[in-house]
Specification:
It is a single chain. With 278 residues, the protein is α+β, with helices and mostly antiparallel strands. Strand 6 and strand 7 form a beta hairpin. The two termini are 40 Å apart.
């Protein structure tokens, strides 16, 4: 039996929506813009306040105040975005993972901590060094002019920028600050598999898929990055890391964009493919 969602005394909630299997939900800039447009549209429909947001590539954080049904708001947002996303990328099925997460924000102290945590998310993920450098959060709306956010609560924070910088590396940090950026990781995956549709690796035959996963790990990608970018489960990615496997990608010549892919996997015979296995 599902646990009943807690009702906030203040009407303020911290909401987290994750991609199914933690996979990417924003592939391109247009996707981020579409989600923000929907967030702004449903703000008019449901009359909620948005105090903070941060769109990461595989999840969304919202700090929202509403007297309407939170579930109805998130359902409308999710259904509209998934419909648009599936049409754009010619896919079917779910995009978001199960029930969204929410927690009540019932005090000013906790409100400020959540606000800071949301804006610091890209810093915790080692995407940027400062929250002001991340394009897809509401941080800039507090510093400059609000567009979607209701920034009236800014007055409770004496020095907004110093307040956010103070706990840049709090205990929440569970990322390796030296890992590759997702942009660099994506380029490596494209190079390993030989084409730009990196999620197609999900459809490869098991031995080929596992060989390519091993090569990604060898090139410095961590398991969570591979999971997030390819949509392959963390368990599948991590179980391959210690198996003996070698992948060699050879470009035929300077003009051929389809590489020959050779691989040896668990003593299997050498195989050659002129195009990605589908």
């Amino acid at each position: 039996m599902r646990k009943k969602r807690e009702i906030s005394e203040t009407g303020v909630y911290h909401v987290v929506m994750r991609g199914i299997n933690k996979q990417t939900i924003f592939e391109a800039e247009r996707d981020y813009l579409q989600y923000l447009a929907l967030l702004s549209y449903y703000k008019i429909v449901y009359q909620y306040d948005i105090y903070a947001y941060c769109l990461m590539n595989n999840h969304v954080h919202l700090l929202i105040k509403t007297e309407a049904s939170l579930s109805e708001i998130i359902k409308s947002l999710s259904v509209s975005y998934v419909y648009w996303y599936n049409h754009r990328y010619n896919r079917v099925g779910h995009l978001f993972q199960g029930r969204f997460l929410s927690e009540s924000v019932n005090s000013d102290v906790y409100f400020k901590n959540v606000l800071r945590y949301i804006h610091q998310n890209p810093v915790y993920a080692s995407i940027v060094n400062e929250p002001s450098l991340y394009k897809w959060s509401s941080y800039d709306e507090y510093i400059r002019e609000p567009i979607i956010c209701d920034t009236c609560n800014k007055s409770m924070i004496t020095d907004f920028e110093k307040f956010h910088d103070k706990y840049k590396r709090e205990i929440w940090l569970d990322y390796n600050s030296k890992h590759l950026s997702d942009e660099d990781a994506r380029l490596i995956i494209e190079d390993v598999i030989g084409h730009a549709n990196i999620k197609a690796v999900q459809t490869y035959k098991v031995d080929m898929r596992n060989a390519l996963l091993s090569e990604m790990r060898t090139r410095g990608l961590n398991a969570k990055q591979i999971q997030r970018l390819t949509g392959i489960s963390y368990q599948v990615v991590t179980k391959e890391k210690d198996k003996r496997c070698q992948v060699i990608v050879i470009q035929k010549d300077n003009y051929d964009l389809t590489p020959f892919i050779f691989f040896v996997y668990k003593n299997a015979t050498l195989r050659k493919l002129n195009s990605p296995p589908l």
